[in-house]
Every structure is written in C-alpha cells, then in structure tokens.
Specification:
By secondary structure, this protein is an alpha+beta fold. It contains 23 helices and 22 strands. Helix 10 (349-372) crosses helix 11 (374-388), helix 10 packs parallel to helix 13 (399-405) and helix 19 crosses helix 22.
Length: 642
C-alpha cells in the first residue's frame, strides 16, 4: 500500500450489530471504556516486553513501558496512549474491523432486545476496544508496530456506524494512541479528578505506570489545569505479589475483570504463595459464567504466565488441564527462565509441579462450594459441568475428587436438572444393590422414556440419566465409585444381583427354553442386522429392545461418532424380546414366515427408534406397519360405497 493512501472499509457484520446494541444497551456503564482501553495498553506493553526478550532492538532505546491518559477540554477529547508493541496495518484491519471470537453468531442470536439483559450478555462476551463508542461519537487510532520504521504508522478512524477508514501515516514513536471524540453530554469526564478516580478504581493493579499530567489551580479558569510534569496515578505493583491482607475483595474482583476481560464478578478465587523447592504465586478465579469459546478444546486456556513479574505468555495451556480451561488468573514463577518457550514449558518439570498444585487448588475451591455453598456450585455445574466431565478419563490422579463433584439427572423424582451426586445415589441404593446403574441417550426425554428402565422402575431402583454428548467419553473413565461398579442398563445381560429373587431366575430359564423356537426364527428373519435374539426380563411394557454386549460400543456412542464423520466398525446389536408381551406371545403361533419376518423387522425398527436411532429404510417400516394394522381392521360391509 502506498504511504498516505486512505481506504474506506466496512466492519464485519457482527461488529456493526454489536456496536449498535452495545451503545444502546451499555450506556450506563460508560466507565468501562476507559478500563478496557487501559487494559489493552497494558497488554500491548506486556507483549512488547515478551518479544523484546528475543529482540531487544524492539525497545528502540525506550525500555520504560507506560500508559498515558490525557484530556483536552477545548477539543472535547480523551486520549489513552501506550508505548507497547503497537500494530501493523494488517493487524489494525484484523483487530479493529472484526470480532475473532468463537461463538460470536450464537452470542448475537441470544440477544433479546431487552437493554438490561443485553447489557449483561454483552458484558459477558467482552467488549474490549469497541466499548470506546459508548463514550465517543468518533474514535481515532494512531499506531505503529515496534521494529517498523516511522513511515509505517497507521491511522484508523470510525464513527461506529458501519465503516472505518485506514490510512498509512508517519508516527515517530512505537505504540498505540486512541483518541475519543466525546458524544454530547459526556463533558463530565473531561476532568482530572474524575479520570484519576476512575483509573484508581478500575486500573490500580495494572503493572505498568499510568501517567497523567499533574494539575494545579488556575485562578483565571477557576479550576485545576494540567501542567508539564508527569504524575503516576496507579500503584503499578503486581496485585498478586502483595500480601493478601492488603488486598480487598473489590480489588480482587477488579483484577479479575482485567485479566479475564469480563464484566461480571467471579464466583470465587484462591490466592497463595508457594515456597520451598519451587517458588511461585498463583491467583486463580472461577468465573460466574462460561467464557465464549469454552467448547473449543483447541482454544488457549485462561491463565497468564509471569516469570519474576515479567509477563511471558497469555493463555498458557500447560498450567491447566483442558477440563479446567474455564479458570482465569495468573501464575508468577521465580524458577523459570525469562526466555521460556511453549516447547520448553511442555517438557518442564517446574511447570508439571505448578500445574499439579494449581489443579488441586481449583478442585479444593469447587469442593468447598459443593459442600457449603450449594447455590454457587449449582451455577458452576450449569456453566462448566460438561467441561468438568472431560476430566474423568483425562486426569487419573484426581479421578476420585472429580467423581465427587459430578452432578446428574436421575429417575429419582421428576426433575430434569443435574443435581444428584454419586454420593447421594449410593446413599439411596436398595438393600442388595451392588451396582450404580446408568443409561446414555441423546436427550433427557429419550433417556427418561427408554424401555430399558422398565424393570428398574418396577423395582424402584434409581438410574442415572446421561444425555450430554461428553457422557459417553466420561463413563469410559468412571468405572466405579466408592467400590460400586457403574453398569449401563443397555449393555450386557441384565444382572440385578441380589435384587433378583431365585424363583424369578428359574422362571426366566424356563421361558428362554419355551421361546427358543421363536427367537431362532426372528434371528433368521433379521439375518445380519443382529448378533443374536434372546428373551429379556428387563422389559415390563415394551415388546423389544436393543442391547450391546458388555464391552461393545454403545448404540448412542456409535451414533455420535457417525454424526462426527468418524469411520467406525460398529458391532451388531442384540435384540431382546419380552415373552410377556402379546405381540411376542402371538409369534409363537405364527405359521406364515412372511408375516413373522415382517413382525420381526417391525420389532427391531421400533426398538431402534426407542433408542433414538434412525431407520435405514423408513418407507419399508411404514409399509410393514400399515399392512399389519390393515389386517387388524374389521372387514368392510358387503355392498359398501366405493
């Protein structure tokens, strides 16, 4: 691009929509614009310090990183500038013209038009730079990336109405300067005392100096006016490095909002300094809602890594396992080298030790909430339960602790909410019950109404209803709890242990012999669609159901993998038929092999539908069913009208 050439470009559609909603929904939270801009400046300084570890020339003989806030009454502007990493022209177009966040479309679709509710949602999404337009009718950004020459400066300008201009300009110093041209009625922020109050409230914990010009009383103007001397507004000391006794809850919360770019306070936090073989400080937070992009397992995690107060890495995924990717905060190590890379982190014994302790700290917070603050933990489970379930097959060392944190919907009571712990389930187990029973399905309705539950309802045995996609993965890592094995009610032969009385077992054996001819004929009719056909005593109302062998892949997991495009060699199901159902009993006397074959396929297809499966040939199923229903209808009277 030739220097000085100006382009007019359109915002990404989501940006335009977000700007409109934000300006109208968050107007009462105008102070967050300054907080976000100062936070961005701090991040830019952190990034420069990290890149300069490998290339000190990026400092350009100016290693004192800082943020500056100023105002101009006559021009009605507020300026926030930093001498951090800055941006190139391509970075400006990418960062200030689009929202590169997973889940953006889903977020925008969730907005209701109710300003109060939408303000909360937008705050959860994280508004960043775009919050400038809450205060400003026009925003100008001047920036140059460190290491580039002055003529590679960039000027960005927009009124937030759908377009922005991009122009190459000269900028002697590196870094970024954001100029807010205020809306009418916003002159109250053109005041040094007001700005200092806002900065100390929201940004006191920023580790870089925030500078403003010292002010003195001007008799002619009858107010304080800025002079030439700089004054540091914030403490500029790492909050996590201060003693806990010196930090208020309000300061912890404001630091969370900075580090997580979140408008809502966290549910809980833990702050500790570890000394001994390793020395580090950790300040970790549990958010009150799921961050956007939580379901992207490849997204970087939310804990920042510092080494001796020097920022090293954003979202250091090696500090937290994937199933705790919702945790936000900082870890500051005294033992790691300043030039540590992601590759070195992956192999570092120091990091392994820090990670282990961090995980235990987070699990302790969750356990305390689960035991003593049940409403808070209900929020945790609602927001992060599906992610926590991923830990069962991934984190063997903490499997027992994680198992105690799990919450499920069960057949106990009518609620679909996941509120029952495994400990509660065990406390309600029937005398003689040796296993924890569960069923997996693709929805809570499919799980609740599965025919596999019929015998358990009859005997009053509680069954856990698993319907999240992650549940099939979770039960692979959760084989037992407090010595009680977990057992799928849809896999293997039904074994109720001491819950089944001996006379019933003898009756089942006699019925298996009596119906062997029928089950053999049904098996021949279905051919390779089934592994085998046998009678069942897990059904009391339904005529048939499909089960898998104990160590085969479940039908639900097979469906999930197929939907994800995974090539699988699915095993064949076993068809179990209910010897007490009229349809099955009538098949004992069916002499027509054609009708028996039709009934066999109908029973199989009905059982498949009850499992939430899809028919390979719905048309043939409908034809067979209609033919059977027609045979049951009374004959039409002779001479009836055509």
């Amino acid at each position: 691009m030739v220097g000085g050439t100006k382009e007019t470009l359109g915002f990404q559609a989501e940006v335009t929509q977000l700007l409109h909603l934000m300006i109208h929904s968050m107007y009462s939270n105008k102070e967050i614009a300054l907080r976000e801009l100062v936070s961005n400046g701090s991040d830019a300084c952190d990034k420069l310090r990290f890149e300069a570890l490998a290339d000190p020339a990026l400092f350009e003989q100016d290693g004192d990183l800082r943020i500056r806030v100023s105002y101009d009454r006559s021009a009605r502007t507020i300026t926030v500038s930093d001498n951090g990493i800055g941006m190139s022209r391509d970075e400006v177009a990418s960062n200030l013209g689009t929202i590169a966040k997973s889940g953006t479309r889903e977020f925008l679709q969730s907005l209701s038009g109710d300003q109060a509710k939408d303000a909360n949602l937008i705050g959860q999404f994280g508004v960043g730079f775009y919050s400038s337009f809450i205060l400003a009718e026009r925003v100008v950004v001047l920036t140059r990336r460190a290491g580039m020459t002055p003529e590679h400066g960039v000027r960005w300008e927009s009124d937030g109405q759908g377009e922005y201009t991009l122009e190459t300009t000269s900028k002697p110093s590196r870094g970024t300067e954001v100029v807010l041209h205020l809306r009418e009625g916003e002159d109250s922020v053109l005041d040094g005392f007001r700005l200092r109050t806002i900065l100390r409230k929201y940004s006191d914990h920023i580790t870089h100096p925030i500078l403003m010009k010292k002010e003195a009383w001007d008799k002619d103007a009858s107010r304080n006016v800025p002079g030439d001397e700089d004054e540091q507004v914030n403490q500029a000391s790492a909050l996590w490095a201060r003693p806990k006794s010196e930090i208020s809850d309000e300061q912890y919360i404001e630091f969370y909002k900075h580090v997580a770019h979140d408008q809502e306070p966290p549910l809980a936090w833990t702050h500790s300094k570890v000394e001994g073989r390793q020395e580090y400080t950790q300040l970790l937070y549990i958010p009150s809602h799921a961050p956007f992009g939580l379901w992207d397992r490849d997204q970087r995690h939310g804990v920042k890594l510092y080494v001796r107060r020097v920022f090293i890495m954003d979202d250091a995924e090696h500090l937290m396992p994937s199933y705790l990717r919702f945790v936000r905060g900082v870890v500051d190590s005294n033992d790691l080298p300043l030039n540590v890379s992601r590759e070195l982190l992956q192999e570092s014994k120091v990091i392994e030790g820090i990670k282990s302790v961090c995980v235990k700290k987070v699990l302790s917070i969750l356990e305390e909430m689960a035991d003593g603050e049940k409403e808070k933990y209900a929020t945790v489970w609602k927001e992060f339960g599906r992610v926590l379930k991923e830990g069962l097959p991934e984190d063997f060392a903490n499997r027992e602790r994680l198992a105690k944190l799990l919450r499920f919907a069960t057949t106990h009571g009518d609620s679909d909410e996941q509120v029952v712990s495994l400990a509660e389930y065990v406390s309600r187990m029937k005398a003689g019950q040796e296993r924890i029973y569960y069923i997996t399905a693709d929805s809570i309705a499919a799980a609740k109404h599965s025919p596999h539950l019929e015998i358990f309802k009859t005997k009053g045995v509680e069954v856990i209803l698993l319907h999240d996609r992650v549940d099939e993965w979770m039960v692979g890592g959760l084989t037992e709890f407090e010595g009680k094995a977990l057992q799928s009610v849809a896999k293997g032969e039904l074994d109720l242990g001491a819950l089944a009385d001996e006379p019933a077992k003898e009756e089942e054996a006699r019925e298996a012999d009596a119906f062997k001819g029928v089950t053999d004929r049904i098996g021949q009719a279905l051919g390779d669609k089934v592994k085998s056909v046998r009678i069942t005593h897990r059904l009391t109302e339904s005529p048939a159901c499909l089960v898998r062998d104990q160590f085969d892949m479940s039908l639900n997991l097979e469906r999930l993998l197929k939907a994800a495009g995974q090539p699988i060699a699915g095993g064949k199901p076993i068809l179990e038929v209910n010897p007490h159902h009229p349809i099955v009993r009538s098949l004992q006397h069916e002499t027509s092999e054609t009708r028996l074959a039709d009934w066999s396929h109908i029973l199989f297809d009905q059982a498949l539908l009850a499992e939430g499966g899809q028919l390979e040939d719905p048309g043939t199923f409908v034809r067979r069913l209609n033919d059977m229903l027609r045979d049951l209808l009374p004959a039409e009277p002779t001479g009836s009208a055509a």
